[in-house]
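Recall the central idea of this unit: under ordinary conditions, the amino acid sequence of a chain determines the structure it adopts. In this exercise we apply that idea directly, starting from the sequence alone.
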Amino acid sequence: MMNNHWILIQKFLRGHITDTEKEALEHWLNKEVKNRQKFDEIKEVWVLTKRSDEPVYNLEDEKLKVLQLIQSSEKEPDDRKGKDGFKMYSLLRVAAVILLMIVASFLTWMYSTDRSSSNLNGQILVSHDAVTKIDLPDSSIIYLNKESKVSFSQNASQRKVELHGEAYFEVEKGARPFIISVQDITVKVLGTSFNVKELKEGEIEVTVVSGKVEVSDGQENIIIRAGELAIVDRLKKRMETSLNTNLNSISWKTRKMVFKDMELKNVIYALSEYYDITFQIKTPEILDCRFTGSFEKARLETVMEVLAYSLEFEYYYMSDEYILSGKRCQQY
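Accordingly, the structure predicted from this sequence is:
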């Protein structure tokens, strides 16, 4: 399994990594801070030595390739003579030596270090381009949305997570409370499933899937249960609860989107958040069209084809956005 992580790094550097492999790599990188530190070191030198097209699978092979790189750099070709050429080759030789040292120390460290989930205490875990699953020492699970980060700590009296961004929690029941801090808002649970999301302009949204949670802004405490959500406005110092009518509030985690007789304007809003894409509407009258359907792990192009066929509008993609136009839908 450890060797698999090295293979994933090699695939990433070569640009041949699949989405599934990328998710697995992100999950491993977020296990410990030193995983990502080693990865960043290797990536930096890998780019410098321009060896990203070479496969890397074990230490001995890598030693041989790097030594060959050093030897080839000692023979200066005619078109690189002169002061600038000498500097370039000196840099390449130094980078190659550094790469050899890093690869050797990295593989030795990777095969000899115990990286169990118990080592997560106090570490900052970051998700960049993909959703990351984090297994906590108490058997609780965090699904961290992209561009989000958490830190986890525990002691004899409590389990605590500090969150920036969005995360879905499956908290294992226990005697110690599980507390999530988002800015100056706290969410306290004993065992449940729920989603916490930082919204713009100081708002925080908590959505409960199972069980119940307690939300506090330091002045007021409220309890929300399964099927409910709370919006905490930190600037206005206000907390409101309501039923959760958004079927796609955790679609980023489930990778499934459901629409029931929903207006196109709301469908587009959900798609723009899920796929991180912009839409331009040429004929606003189509926004009242209603759509019913569901998609699971679907490509955006597939979703757009289904919507366009069902609601009879036209679209095209240009300059990183989808442009829609059509006629007003008939109302039945």
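The helical segments are 2-14, 19-29, 33-49, 59-74, 83-112, 251-254, 264-275, 300-311.
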